[in-house]
Structures
1.
Amino acid sequence: MRMTANQVQGSAIRVQGLQKSYKELRVLRGVDFEVARGSIFALLGSNGAGKTTVVKILSTLLKADAGTARVHGFDVAAQAAEVRESISLTGQFAAVDEILSGRENLVLVARLRHLKDPGTIADDLLRRFSLTEAGGRKVSTYSGGMRRRLDIAMSLIGDPPVIFLDEPTAGLDPQARIEVWQAVKELAGRGTTVLLTTQYLDEAEQLADRIAILHEGRIIVNGTLAELKQLLPPAKVEYVEKQPTLEDVFLTLVGTANTASQPG
């Protein structure tokens, strides 16, 4: 698909005045934001804030009641087919076939998309997501983090310029979450635009170039992590030693245990 100059230079995603209600329940009350190309944008909010509704509208699965949205230069209402060709969507649950191996899952999707040399595509994605050694095993033997990484890898077949990750680490253990975070950073590093929805504060802090907080159907703040931190006055505290975070403790102990379990 050939892109216009406007598509190349403009924002990857532009949302203005988005509204959506389910009968009497107003889920979105006028949502506005833009996502720069090749960036990671986190839509942060609690359950029921409307995050998934935004993603469904942007991925053409749901029609808005009012407002406009453009993805990769295309209007989601008037140019739905073009939008769908430009995106990939990964939901909260890994959409992988457990009977097949990881490589077979990837080859199957590449064939369904009528791409040349699906085996090479599969092997490249297995390398990118550190799944080469597990590629020949059935997905039923994979850990939660491995399944999620495979799911994201599958969504990249065909090189979509924009990817939506809706609660990608929901239900995963700490180690698996970190594995997924590394995969997401890899996406943005290669120029993919990522819109990430999450309810985890540390996830948004670790990954996002910009963070928008969605509350009661509206974006109440939107900025970089540094900009958001400036909204609160600095706290005056006495000097104390920096205590390790739970993540520091977890990674140190797990790393030590893994090293100790390896044969000498």
Note: The chain has a mean pLDDT of 86.
2.
Amino acid sequence: MTDTTTHSAVEATDSAAAGPRVALVTGASGGIGGAIGARLGAQGMAVGVHYAGNRDRAQETADAVTAAGGQAILVSGDVADEAAVAQLFDELDAAYGGVDVVVHTAGVMLLSPLVDLSFEDFDRMHRTNVRGAFVVSREAARRVRDGGAIINFSSSVVKLALPGYGAYAATKSAVDALTLILAKELRGRHITVNAVAPGPTATPLFLDGKPQQAIDAMRNMTPLERLGRPEDIAETVAHLAGPAQWINGQVIYANGGII
């Protein structure tokens, strides 16, 4: 017991001397990504707040991170472009000396029955959701420091199999497979790799374009009889990013019991 306690104390001292843990959150200008950034800031992390186009929303997230007690810088780039993603990590290296946690929330959801879905929309989702997850995960696997965490984003629609979600769910099934295999490939690095699969969550990505009847139906599917909140998802991510070192190679369904 004494040896273990002493070893933990030394690790804690070394960690404190090295500065805060550093997280990259892609899609941090979105509802879930923004909540995650703020939650990790509350854990004292330095957060790279990534955005693709909405700098003002990203700045709001950065402000929330610092207000919660963390540090933040804005970073931007196409998650499906390997050079742009490498640059994200370079910027965090320059600012904070490395990266410990990568949370990849950036994604596109375009809904349509398969018979009506255009190849343009299919390719757009595949590029962002599948290629983007691959590019970010590959760079994370190369550069996240030992003892860190990689957290991808899946979706509960993979299991719900709702009409209109076929192409989107297919991209998230690919994310599941990539995540579970990468967890095994990082053996020996003490890096956890998991995916979070939210259910219906009250964000613009989910709410936009849906009739109220459809939203109400989704709400009533959960035993808790409400939609998820971005903060609900952020709590799950915070657990995986910090204390949950024994959860690895899993898809965590954060959906209020809808499935």
Note: The domain at 21-254 is CATH 3.40.50.720 (Rossmann fold).
3.
Amino acid sequence: MLSVMSNQTERPAIGVRGLEKSFTQVTVLRGVDFDVARGSIFALLGSNGAGKTTLVRILATLLRADAGTARVNGFDVGTRAADVRESISLTGQFAAVDEVLTGRENLVLVARLRHLREPGAIADDLLRRFALTEAGARRVATYSGGMRRRLDIAMSLIGDPPVIFLDEPTTGLDPEARIEVWQAVKDLAARGTTVLLTTQYLDEAEQLADRVAILHEGRIVVDGTVPELKRLLPPTEVQYVEKQPTLEDVFLALVGADAQGAQR
């Protein structure tokens, strides 16, 4: 793996070493290593089938790795699964909200299921944080895609988990809704939540992430900040005007034609 990782002064929120996973004859993860600093946004970038969702499911204790270790919030995912689950929240590719209920009722329901005090106050606070107060009394069936996704993320924050996994959170959203979700993710990190985000959208990783890791053929092929990754390729010169490489240039240079074919 090509690494441009910086020294971390504190224990990472997520630490992965040598993670491997296969399904029958298909090897999905081939020795994955990375760290995620506390309170940061870490983007796991890769084409469809690269193993992003498998990796997240292992970190969320929904799958067992065949080899290697992973720690989330200081707990080993294999031996301290219950502690890991209390430390995290997982939001999948599609919003898991009840369309019959209102936005506020969805939040209150989750707060009650988690046996929290003052579920109404918790719901109202999250509606405010995610700019959904005016829509809180409306049925979720009337919400736009971006509003549903923001409500879904808000629901995942009930109980204040220190680590949240967002598995391709903007899949199927229009550009305006994607921007709404991006802002919600930035607000999470600003409040100290650690976010691991999987995506196949290069602009999403570039907009959001403090660090980006590219997963290709079951391995992390590069891990660094966006400026660090861009420095892996030399700038190009077009009519004497220097052009800095984009994250897309870096991604395609590292994973090659396989990714281009997968994205078509």
Note: The longest strand covers residues 26-36.
